């Protein structure tokens, strides 16, 4: 009985397949990674796709979310033994490029913006504004660094050094990833991994991407590499976050500011 049900499930799944290449879009600022992890997990369990394509149009975002997506994509390759091709359409910078590095090959529009290898922390201060309108904040803390990065006071030189060291640790991890995945010696990589941005054409010259071509030309590469007569992309049927959950997250970020390190341009 179990075997019969399994056969029915497989046959039903076959009727639902409308594509032969999995497609994951990395668009906009990378803030959250939960939905992308669900999409990747879907494709790990999908035996019918020939490969996975990352369609990237992102200036980057949260360093931790970029890393989580990158790690999940590496897990996809390990579990399925299938290839990932990344295509940078308009912008694939900072965290967008970090995610692209999970691809076996990276392609780019010749006029796309890419690179911006680096890390940063941005903190907005508004204590002067609050003082002018008579609002003050008092923090009770267990240690002198517990409220590091607070927008309610000026940062000390010691605190700046702590955050600078933290940024450099994350930056070194970015360098290590690009060096390993793109086979670029770290000393050569440091020559242009200073936050600089490049066109797709220039990125090819220095080894950040494998080739520059239009998306239609990219589809021809997919046909050739995976022996397909036509390309039919399939997206993961993942339920997105509801509007109330998104509003709650926005409210939390407004009232509970946090230090967030980013791979992001600009």
User: If you compute it from the alpha carbons, what radius of gyration comes out, rounded to the nearest whole angstrom?
Assistant: 22 Å
DSSP, total strands: 11
Low-confidence segments, given as residue ranges, are: 8-12
Largest sheet: 8 strands, mixed
Q: How helical, in percent, are the residues?
A: 40-55%
Strand content: 15-25%
Identify the overall geometry. globular
End-to-end Cα distance: 58 Å
Number of helical segments with 4 or more residues: 10
Question: What is the averaged pLDDT score?
Answer: 88
Order of helices and strands: HEHEEHEHEEEHHHEHEHEHE
The assigned structural class equals alpha/beta
Summarize the structure in words:
This protein has 266 residues and is α/β, with parallel strands linked by helices. 44% of the residues lie in helices and 18% in strands. It has ten helices and eleven strands. The chain has helices at residues 2-16, 34-44, 63-80, 95-100, 127-132, 157-182, 186-189, 200-206, 215-225, 243-255; strands at residues 21-27, 51-58, 60-62, 84-93, 105-108, 113-115, 120-121, 197-199, 211-212, 233-234, 261-264. Strand 1, helix 2 and strand 2 form a beta-alpha-beta unit. Helix 2 packs parallel to helix 3. The longest helix is centred in the middle third of the chain and has 26 residues, at 157-182. The protein is globular, with a radius of gyration of 22 Å.
